[in-house]
Amino acid sequence: xxxxxxxxxxxxxxxxxxxxxxxxxxxxxxxxxxxxxxxxxxxxxxxxxxxxxxxxxxxxxxxxxxxxxxxxxxxxxxxxxxxxxxxxxxxxxxxxxxxxxxxxxxxxxxxxxxxxxxxxxxxxxxxxxxxxxxxxxxxxxxxxxxxxxxxxxxxxxxxxxxxxxxxxxxxxxxxxxxxxxxxxxxxxxxxxxxxxxxxxxxxxxxxxxxxxxxxxxxxxxxxxxxxxxxxxxxxxxxxxxxxxxxxxx
Amino acid sequence: xxxxxxxxxxxxxxxxxxxxxxxxxxxxxxxxxxxxxxxxxxxxxxxxxxxxxxxxxxxxxxxxxxxxxxxxxxxxxxxxxxxxxxxxxxxxxxxxxxxxxxxxxxxxxxxxxxxxxxxxxxxxxxxxxxxxxxxxxxxxxxxxxxxxxxxxxxxxxxxxxxxxxxxxxxxxxxxxxxxxxxxxxxxxxxxxxxxxxxxxxxxxxxxxxxxx
Lengths: 249, 212
Prior knowledge:
The complex is a heterodimer of chains A (249) and B (212).
Chain A: H1 6-49, H2 60-67, E1 68-74, E2 80-81, H3 90-95, E3 106-113, E4 116-126, E5 131-138, E6 145-152, H4 166-169, E7 188-190, E8 201-203, H5 209-246
Parallel strand pairs in A: 7-8
Antiparallel strand pairs in A: 1-2, 1-3, 3-4, 4-5, 5-6
Helix pairs in contact in A: 1-2
Chain B: H1 7-17, H2 30-35, H3 40-64, H4 73-95, H5 97-103, H6 105-108, H7 114-124, H8 129-159, E1 161-162, E2 165-166, H9 170-175, H10 187-204
Helix pairs in contact in B: 1-8, 3-4, 3-7, 3-8, 4-5, 4-7, 7-8, 8-10
């Protein structure tokens, strides 16, 4: 057969692609469970890091089961809905253009650490070059930040990429998402540095303004949904506190 | 009959390790050499990945060399390399998730590593299986040892660690006022370390110095 004929060239290309495609598809399918498990472990590590628990891939599941006591989902109106909270990928959902905001599901994880309750809220947003995401843990007053962990896919090293370091994350601790009038204000990542003593601002990253603003927007958009849910709970919080203290285990 | 591992075969392995080194002499594959050499572990994983991709790709192309239509040979080479890289990527994601995260885009970029395409086009397309395999192995090792050497220097002086472990004697040095050099972690230092290796190599073998 003539090696340089069109027929031969096309046949060769088609056969080659079929073989390669089959091999890759089979490998991908076979390794799928392991990859899923790795992603789940990573997610557990990230969730736990928001309440200051460091875990590794080997003990992530144990630690997660030890500290996380409840998983809840709410919708964008702040109503609780049914479903498996851990399975929800907020970043995937955030980037899915076909989904209407009414279909968004907002999961959060209730943690118990040293007999104190924390609410860990996952979030996703847009940085300069790609997506950013994070977890913010609120204390049981639903307004004080206990810890925050952020990460990014492709922010500029040394600038926007600094959002996943302690230098950026630590100042979030103790900040409040509501003002003294009980109005939702979120936490702003302030260019040029936070005002001294301002409970709703943290320092922005010099040279990383767009990433910083991305974090601000992400915090505002996400936390306001959760706040609408927590505010409804708060009305009954005193009653609940009373009940739990009476039946303390 | 030619022997299984004769002088010519030894040369195929030895040359790319030294006087025909892909990084220091041919200046190929520099991009990944600069980017992933902050930690020894990453350099080792990258080296293993490249060894696997290069030897497999060269062997496959060498077997197919008389059947590949000339007009689409580059596409076929690319297809073979790309699918091997996709395989490595999948395997790393499944079995070494942390390394996979750290190397992230660079695993995918093995596809564009000039050394691989270069050896496929220049050698595997015209040589028998065993020779092509050895040539790929030699070049992959030649690439790998530079990577490991650079990563060794950068991690040792940049983080004061090797393979992520603290060096026992370093605590005394810190007490005496020694500090890790953060510049080592930044990309420019990789270029400088590669430059130093090139300098050492050329001062030992004057034939490598271009005359003009």
